[in-house]
Amino acid sequence: MMMFLFHLSIRTFESSLRVLTTSALILSFLISQRPAASATGMTSDTDDLPALLSIKAHLHPSASLSSWDSHNSSTAFCRWPGVTCGNRQNPGRVTSLDLANLGLTGSISPDIGNLTFLRSLNLSLNSLQGQLPPELGRLSHLESLLLSRNALEGRIPGTLANGSSLWRISLGSNRLAGEIPAELGALSKLQILSLHYNDLSGRIPASLGNLSSITHIDLVGNRVTGTIPPSLGRLQSLVHISVTRNSLTGAIPAVHF
Ligand SMILES: *[C@@H]1O[C@H](CO)[C@@H](O)[C@H](O)[C@H]1NC(C)=O
Ligand SMILES: *[C@@H]1O[C@H](CO)[C@@H](O)[C@H](O)[C@H]1NC(C)=O
Ligand SMILES: *[C@@H]1O[C@H](CO)[C@@H](O)[C@H](O)[C@H]1NC(C)=O
Ligand SMILES: *[C@@H]1O[C@H](CO)[C@@H](O)[C@H](O)[C@H]1NC(C)=O
Ligand SMILES: *[C@@H]1O[C@H](CO)[C@@H](O)[C@H](O)[C@H]1NC(C)=O
Predict the structure, then answer these.
(1) Ligand 4 pocket member 140 (CB < 6 A)
(2) Is residue 98's pLDDT more than 90?
(3) All domains in the chain, ordered by first residue
(4) Alpha carbons 54 and 108: distance in angstroms, whole number
């Protein structure tokens, strides 16, 4: 009898759990059926504003971003200097952030990874420090990453390769160290890989021979060693590769030179 009751209560527990799960499903369905945010243009206040405020908080002097303060409408931030938002399909989603050459110091907030509609990021010609946040890998629409001429340090995160839309990576004149991540070979749309004047070491990854769209590779002024991998010889689109001022040895692959 005890046994039976025990089983019964387990069964009751299980079925009420099932009911709970079902109502949770219905609830989340109902939530997702709220009036489409983009249709009303009202959503985006909850989307990209916190990330922009976090980006601002990581930068100094914030005086140059002093006009980043009006919250009087849900998409007011779309008119902040340097911020561009999407068209009617994605109103209030930031698609471009251009804060180049503003004399900024500070670092790049990891929350930048929340601007998931970002296509273009230009923070070049500042004095930004700290590391490239691995969260940049969450920006799957990112096409252009321009961070050259700052004081960024640490490694180039392999997660960048997750940004399958990237066609231009410009990280020259920083203090980036460590190896060139082999993962970058997965960027099938990448045309320009500019990593000059950093502190990169190790070998050039053979996987760069998979960059089927690449036209320019610039590694000048690093501490890269070894040889240019023969795999780079199969890059039909490559028109320019600069590797001087490194510690490379051996021959240059025959195909292009
Ligand atoms: C960014 O997204 C992460 C993960 O979803 C979340 O934890 C974090 O609070 C978000 N940051 C901001 C500033 O909204
Ligand atoms: C919102 O604030 C900005 C700047 O502070 C101002 O130019 C604009 O007219 C305001 N818009 C509304 C709807 O109040
Ligand atoms: C990025 O900023 C630099 C410096 O202001 C500028 O010369 C360049 O044209 C910008 N590039 C893009 C794609 O916005
Ligand atoms: C890679 O991209 C996917 C899809 O955009 C995303 O869900 C995931 O979080 C990204 N991974 C990293 C490490 O950024
Ligand atoms: C990328 O390149 C490496 C080394 O050349 C190779 O082993 C690998 O199979 C390639 N991956 C793809 C997806 O082409």
Answers:
(1) yes
(2) yes
(3) 99-256 (3.80.10.10)
(4) 9
